[in-house]
Design goal:
The protein is built from 4 helices and no strands. It is mainly alpha-helical.
């Protein structure tokens, strides 16, 4: 059985794994800090190109 994580969980795990603040993750991924916060709060989806960066 495959476990599917929400975009919020994916972003939080990515930041935790790499020890990044929202600001640091935003700079690394080419997003704003507020966009990271909205993704983590379930208000926005991860853009497809960012999913590729996180998984790659």
């Amino acid at each position: 059985m495959q476990v599917v994580m929400s975009d919020s969980e994916v972003m939080k795990r990515y930041r935790k794994k790499h020890g990044l603040t929202q600001e640091q993750a935003a700079k690394k991924l080419g997003l704003t800090r507020s966009m990271i916060a909205m993704i983590e709060n379930g208000q926005r989806y991860l853009p497809a190109n960012i999913v590729t960066k996180i998984q790659g």
